[in-house]
């Protein structure tokens, strides 16, 4: 029997924390929102310290990642490396999260 008599509907065996967290995100349909927040938080890790130091803001609207950069030369370099950055994002967060990157 897989049911706990004190908490019907709950699994009897203990689930690892990460697995339980993923199930919770699915149950409340928050997976995409969590991935968006994770991407924004991890931006500096994805692109490195030099770019991170010159990033003023990062936000997501309608599957577009908007990144405001304070340096013109770095902004141009990022525009030329857009497909590489998209590849990193897709590898870590899935293909459906971001459709386009806009550098401001």
UniProtKB/TrEMBL annotation:
Matches recorded under Pfam families: DciA (PF05258)
Domain of life (superkingdom): Bacteria
PANTHER family (UniProt xref): UPF0232 PROTEIN SCO3875
Name of the protein described by the UniProt record: DUF721 domain-containing protein
Organism field: Algoriphagus faecimaris
InterPro entries: DciA-like (IPR007922)
């Amino acid at each position: 029997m897989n049911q706990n008599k004190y908490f019907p509907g709950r699994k009897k065996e203990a689930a690892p924390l990460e697995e339980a967290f993923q199930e919770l995100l699915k149950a409340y349909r928050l997976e995409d929102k969590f991935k968006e927040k994770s991407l924004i938080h991890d931006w500096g890790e994805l692109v490195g310290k030099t770019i991170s130091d010159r990033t003023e803001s990062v936000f997501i609207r309608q599957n577009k990642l908007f990144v405001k950069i304070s340096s013109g030369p770095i902004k141009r370099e990022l525009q030329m490396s857009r497909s590489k950055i998209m590849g990193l994002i897709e590898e870590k967060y899935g293909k459906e999260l971001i459709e386009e990157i806009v550098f401001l």
